[in-house]
Structures are given as C-alpha cells and as structure tokens.
Design goal:
The chain is of the alpha+beta class. It folds into 3 domains: 2-101, Helix Hairpins (Orthogonal Bundle); 119-168, SH3 type barrels, CATH 2.30.30.60; 174-256, Alpha-Beta Plaits, CATH 3.30.70. The chain is built from 7 helices and 8 strands, in the order ααααββββαββαββα. The chain has a 5-stranded antiparallel sheet. A 3-stranded antiparallel sheet has the order 6-8-7, covered by helices on one side. β2 (132-139) and β3 form a beta hairpin. The chain starts with a helix and ends in a 17-residue tail after the last helix.
Length: 273
C-alpha cells in the first residue's frame, strides 16, 4: 500500500513540475495557429488587391501556413523539453527518402514553381499547345488543369507544358480574326474587296481604330481559285461569335452579288488522234 501511495505522490509531483512546460507548449501552439491564420489572411487580401493570379495566391498562402506550422511544432517541442536535434535528423532523412521516391515528379514541381512565378499564363487564360487547347482552371505545383471547349477537364503535368511551345490567346485583350476566302479567277478583285469590306463594317463586335484596321488582301494564286485573306479584330471573348458571323455574312453577300465560292476541280482534255 505504501508503494502505491509513493508512486501516486511521485506522479503528482512530476505532473505539477511538467505543467508549466505543457502550458507553455499549448500557448505556443495556439499562438502559432493564430499567427498562421492572420498572416495567411493578410497575405491573401494583399495579393487579391493587387490582382495576383489565384493559383499563385493559393500556393504562397499554403507555403506560409506550412512554414509557420513547422516553426510552431519545433518551438512547442522545445518548450516541453524535448530535443529537436533528432527530429531534425528524422525530417531530413524523410525528405531525402521522399525526394528519391518522387524523383520523376521533381521536374513537375520545379516547372510548376517556375510557371507560378514567371506567369506565362494565369487562371482563366485560353492556351494552346501540342494537342491541347482550353481555358486554364487551376495551376498547382505539379499539374495544370485546363477545360477544353468540349467541357473536358484535362490534367497535364507542368513539365509537359514547360517543355512545349504555348500559345496564349488571351495574352492580349484584342485578337485578330482571319478568314481565308477562295474566289473564282474570273471575279473582279476590286469588287470582291468592296463587298467584303462592307460586310466587315456591318458585322457586330469588331474593333475599328487606327491600330486595328480591317483588311482584305489577295494572298496567293491557288490551284482552283484566287485566295483572299480577310482580317479584322475583336475582343477575345467575342472571337467565335465574330468568326462564325463573318463567315456566314460573307457567303450571303457573295451570293447576292452572283459570286460563287469555287471548289477544287480538275479539267481533263482528251486529244483524239
């Protein structure tokens, strides 16, 4: 019975001696969580105010939160009197093992960080590369999500994007619309130009100013037709609306003026000997 009593007394003394350290560790933990919340909130608000890309904002906020949590963990362990030397060695070994296991993914991570900070494209841009084309939905450290016109969500490793030629169609707010137009050789060139320019003037959503001028030019002599190039400008969001409307309006205007659009044909002459 005396041994049980002595054990209980020693346990109480140990707990009482340990309580200040435990209290300090709890205070440090709570303070760390609060600091992480405040810093992340302020950072996100500041980056949003400066119109920083959402994916970059999320990446920076996540990195800040992880760093503060790690520092809080080491501080709390030190307050408890636990040596962090072994813990640092453990994390170092774990990091080396993880890096070795994910060596094929390190290129994706490095490419993702480069994309996030150099910003060749941002969330919402319409990009085209290799066999992919779509709107950027999200940029993570390892992958980029794009939504195609067929509403398919494609997840692409960042290393694939960084090693490809990327065409960012929304890098500029004003884009050029081009329609290739075949015309019969017997048609009058000036008449065709006048008809198409009238169509351009009457088509909605086009941008007309000194920098962005409509043009109708004879591009080349094709095998079966004169090939004209029709160029105009519009906001990116109106591209397909303008393209389809322009194609239809040109066809209707040519029909009204009796000008047909030729198709590939081959004339065969038989010589009777």
């Amino acid at each position: 019975m005396d041994k049980v009593f002595d054990f209980w007394e020693n346990l109480k003394l140990s707990v009482l001696e340990y309580l200040p350290n435990l209290g300090a560790a709890l205070i440090i933990t709570a303070a760390g969580i609060l600091i992480a919340f405040i810093v992340v909130r302020v950072t996100r608000k500041a980056m949003t105010k400066k119109n920083v890309d959402l994916s970059l904002t999320a990446f920076v906020c996540k990195a800040i939160r992880i760093i503060i949590y790690i520092l809080t963990l080491f501080s709390a362990l030190s307050a408890l009197g636990i040596s962090t030397t072994g813990l640092v060695a453990f994390f170092s070994a774990a990091a080396a093992a993880i890096a070795l296991a994910l060596k094929d993914r390190l290129n994706d991570i490095a490419s993702g960080i480069v994309i996030l900070f150099t910003r060749p494209f941002v969330t919402g841009d319409f990009i085209e590369f290799d066999n992919y084309a779509g709107f950027v939905q999200k940029i993570d450290v390892m992958h980029t999500n794009i939504m195609t016109y067929s509403r398919t969500n494609v997840i692409i490793p960042n290393s694939v994007i960084s090693s490809s030629k990327v065409n960012n169609h929304t890098a500029e707010p004003i884009v050029r619309v081009q329609v290739d137009l075949p015309i019969p050789y017997e048609a009058d060139i000036n008449t065709v130009k006048k008809i198409v320019l009238d169509v351009l003037r009457d088509t909605d959503h086009l941008v007309h100013d000194e920098t962005h001028r409509d043009s109708v030019n004879l591009e080349r002599f094709g095998d079966s037709a004169l090939e004209f190039s029709v160029r105009c400008f519009c906001d990116f969001k109106d591209y397909w609306t303008v393209y389809y409307a322009l194609t239809q309006n040109i066809k209707e205007a040519l029909d009204k003026n009796g000008i047909s659009i030729p198709f590939n044909q081959l004339d065969v002459f038989i010589k009777n000997k």
